[in-house]
C-alpha cells in the first residue's frame, strides 16, 4: 500500500503519534475559525520549518508534496470570487466584468482567505502523515488513549487486508476487461458497474474477515480485559516538550498577529 | 453455523466484518479522495455536495448489514483509513468521523437498528446529507459569503446524493447477501427468516 510515511530516524519519527495529533488537531480547529489570510500563512510557515528541521524531510520532497496543495489554493482563488454574494463585495473596487460575471476585489479576498484556510488544514496533517507509521498510531491509541484493544488489534489485523483488497480490485477489473464487459450508458449502467466491482471485493473481504476472526477467537483474543504488549509505546517528556513548545510558538504567532492588528475575528460556524 | 451475537454485544467476527466493510469501501473510494481536492476547487460546493455523499456509502452499508449501535461510525472512520495515509490525512479522518457520527445519530433516530425499509433508508440519507452539509460547509467553506440560491441548491444536491448513496448501499448489501457471506450478520438472519 502506498503511503506518505517513510521510515527515518528523525525527532518527529521518534515521537509518540498522539503527541503529533495533539499538535495537529488544535491547529486544524484554529484554521476552521480564522477569517483572515495571515494566520494560515504563518502556521504554514511554522509547519514547513518543523517538517524540514525536525522531520528531516528533504526540500525536494516537501515541494513535491506542497505543489498539489498550492494548486488547490490557486483554483479556489480563481473560482470562488464568482460565487460570493454580490451585496457583500459590491462596495469594493470592480476588477473585471464580462456581462453578468463580475470580479470584485472583496470577492477575491474572501476566495484567497478560504483557499489559505484549506491549505492550512491540509498542511497541518503533513507532519503526522509523513512521519507516522499507521500501526504505531493504532498501538498508541490502544496503549495511551485507552481505545479498547479488541477494536485496535482487529483494525491492525484488518490493515493487512488493504494490499490484498487493492490487488483483488485490480484482478476484478482485469477479469471484466478480459471478458469484454462493457459499461452501459446512464445511471443504471454506472450502478451495475459499481455492483460488478463492489460485490466481489466485499465478498472476498468479508470471507477473509470471518476466517481471521475465527483464528483470533481460537487464540483466546479478547478473553481477558487486560493484555500484555510486545511493542510498548510511551508518552515521554520529549513528547510533552514537543507539544508544549509547539503550542507556545502557536500562541506567540497569534499574539504577534494581534499586536500587528492582523488577527481577525474567530467564527465558530458560519452557515447562513 | 454460528449465530449473530446479540444486539449491542460485539463478537470478534462482528468487529472484523464491520472493519473490513469500512476498509473495502475505503479502497473503492481512494481514487475519489485523490481527485477530491482538485475537483472541489474546480467545481466548488456543488462538487463537495456530490462527492461528499459517496463517503456515506460505507456508513449506510454497515448500518444496514450489522444493525448494531456503533457499526455506522466504526465503518465510516475505518473507510477513511486507506485514504488517510495519503496527503489529506487527518481531514479525511475527521470527515469520516463526522459522517459516521451524524449517520449513527440518524440510524438510531429513524430505524432504532431494526426497521431498514427503503423509505427509512431514503430519509436516513437525506437527513444525514443536510446535517453534514451544514456542518462541513458552515465550518470549512464559510458559506455565509455565498449567494443564498447557491446555498439552497447545494443543500438539495447534498441531500439527494446522500439519499441515493443510502439506497445504493442497500442495493449492494442485498446483492452481497445473496452470495451467502453475510449469513452470520443481522441482515443475513433477516433474509433467512424471510425465506
Cα radius of gyration of chain A in angstroms: 24 Å
What kind of sheet is the major sheet of chain B? Answer: none
Mean pLDDT metric of chain A:
86
Return residue spans of chain A where pLDDT drops below 50 for at least 5 consecutive residues: none
List the strand order in the largest sheet of chain A.
1-2
- Give the end-to-end Cα distance of chain B, rounded to a whole number of Å: 17 Å
Multimeric state of these chains? heterodimer
Q: Can you describe what's shown?
A:
The complex is a heterodimer of chains A (272) and B (195). Chain A has helices spanning 11-14, 17-33, 38-53, 59-79, 86-89, 105-131, 134-143, 149-159, 161-178, 186-218, 237-259, and strands at residues 94-98, 101-104. With 272 residues, chain A is mainly α. Chain A has a two-stranded antiparallel ribbon. In chain A, helix 3 (38-53) runs parallel beside helix 6 and helix 3 packs antiparallel against helix 11. Chain A starts with 10 loop residues before the first helix and ends in a 13-residue tail after the last helix. Chain B has one domain (12-190). The longest helix of chain B has 43 residues, at 12-54.
Task: Provide keyphrases for this structure.
heterodimer, A: 272 residues, mainly alpha, 2 domains, two-stranded antiparallel ribbon, 11 helices, 68% helix, B: mainly alpha, globular
Summarize the structure.
Chain A has 272 residues and is mainly alpha-helical. Chain A has eleven helices and two strands.
Write the layout of secondary structure elements.
The complex is a heterodimer of chains A (272) and B (195).
Chain A: H1 11-14, H2 17-33, H3 38-53, H4 59-79, H5 86-89, E1 94-98, E2 101-104, H6 105-131, H7 134-143, H8 149-159, H9 161-178, H10 186-218, H11 237-259
Helix pairs in contact in A: 2-6, 2-11, 3-6, 3-11, 4-6, 7-8, 9-10
Chain B: H1 12-54, H2 57-66, H3 71-84, H4 89-111, H5 118-139, H6 148-177, H7 186-194
Amino acid at each position: 500500500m502506498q503511503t506518505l510515511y517513510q521510515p527515518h530516524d528523525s525527532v518527529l519519527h521518534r515521537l509518540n503519534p498522539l503527541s503529533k495529533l495533539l499538535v495537529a488537531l488544535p491547529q486544524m480547529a484554529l484554521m476552521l475559525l480564522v477569517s483572515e489570510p495571515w494566520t494560515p500563512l504563518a502556521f504554514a510557515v511554522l509547519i514547513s520549518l518543523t517538517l524540514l528541521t525536525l522531520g528531516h524531510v528533504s526540500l525536494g520532497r516537501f515541494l513535491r508534496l506542497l505543489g498539489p496543495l498550492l494548486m488547490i489554493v490557486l483554483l479556489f482563488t480563481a473560482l470562488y470570487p464568482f460565487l460570493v454574494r454580490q451585496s457583500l463585495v459590491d462596495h469594493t473596487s470592480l476588477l473585471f466584468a464580462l456581462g453578468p460575471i463580475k470580479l470584485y476585489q472583496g470577492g477575491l479576498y474572501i476566495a484567497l482567505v478560504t483557499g489559505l484556510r484549506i491549505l492550512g488544514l491540509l498542511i497541518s496533517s503533513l507532519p503526522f502523515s509523513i512521519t507516522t507509521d499507521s500501526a504505531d498510531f493504532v498501538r498508541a491509541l490502544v496503549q495511551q488513549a485507552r481505545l479498547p484493544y479488541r477494536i485496535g488489534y482487529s483494525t491492525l489485523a484488518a490493515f493487512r487486508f488493504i494490499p490484498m483488497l487493492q490487488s483483488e480490485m485490480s484482478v476484478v477489473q482485469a477479469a471484466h476487461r478480459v471478458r469484454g464487459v462493457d459499461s452501459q450508458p446512464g445511471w443504471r449502467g454506472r450502478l451495475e458497474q459499481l455492483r460488478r466491482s463492489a460485490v466481489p471485493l466485499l465478498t472476498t473481504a468479508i470471507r477473509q474477515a470471518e476466517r481471521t476472526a475465527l483464528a483470533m477467537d481460537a487464540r483466546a483474543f479478547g478473553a481477558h480485559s487486560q493484555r500484555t504488549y510486545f511493542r510498548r509505546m510511551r508518552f515521554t517528556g520529549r513528547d510533552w516538550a514537543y507539544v508544549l513548545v509547539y503550542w507556545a510558538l502557536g500562541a506567540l504567532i497569534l499574539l504577534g498577529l494581534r499586536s500587528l492588528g492582523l488577527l481577525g475575528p474567530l467564527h465558530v460556524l458560519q452557515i447562513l | 453455523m454460528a449465530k449473530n451475537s446479540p444486539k449491542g454485544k460485539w463478537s470478534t467476527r462482528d468487529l472484523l466484518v464491520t472493519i473490513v466493510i469500512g476498509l473495502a469501501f475505503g479502497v473503492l473510494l481512494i481514487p475519489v479522495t485523490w481527485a477530491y481536492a482538485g475537483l472541489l476547487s474546480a467545481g466548488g460546493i456543488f462538487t463537495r455536495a456530490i462527492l461528499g455523499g459517496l463517503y456515506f456509502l460505507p456508513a449506510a452499508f454497515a448500518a444496514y448489514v450489522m444493525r448494531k449501535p456503533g457499526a455506522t461510525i466504526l465503518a465510516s472512520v475505518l473507510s477513511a483509513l486507506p485514504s488517510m495515509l495519503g496527503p489529506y490525512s487527518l481531514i479525511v479522518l475527521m470527515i469520516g468521523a463526522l459522517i459516521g457520527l451524524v449517520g449513527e445519530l440518524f440510524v438510531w433516530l429513524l430505524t432504532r437498528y431494526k426497521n431498514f425499509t427503503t423509505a427509512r433508508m431514503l430519509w436516513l440519507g437525506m437527513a444525514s446529507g443536510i446535517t453534514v452539509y451544514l456542518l462541513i460547509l458552515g465550518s470549512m467553506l464559510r458559506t455565509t459569503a455565498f449567494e443564498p440560491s447557491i446555498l439552497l441548491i447545494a443543500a438539495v444536491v447534498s441531500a439527494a446524493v446522500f439519499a441515493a448513496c443510502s439506497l445504493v448501499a442497500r442495493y449492494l448489501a442485498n446483492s452481497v447477501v445473496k452470495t451467502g457471506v453475510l449469513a452470520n450478520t443481522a441482515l443475513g438472519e433477516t433474509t433467512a427468516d424471510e425465506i
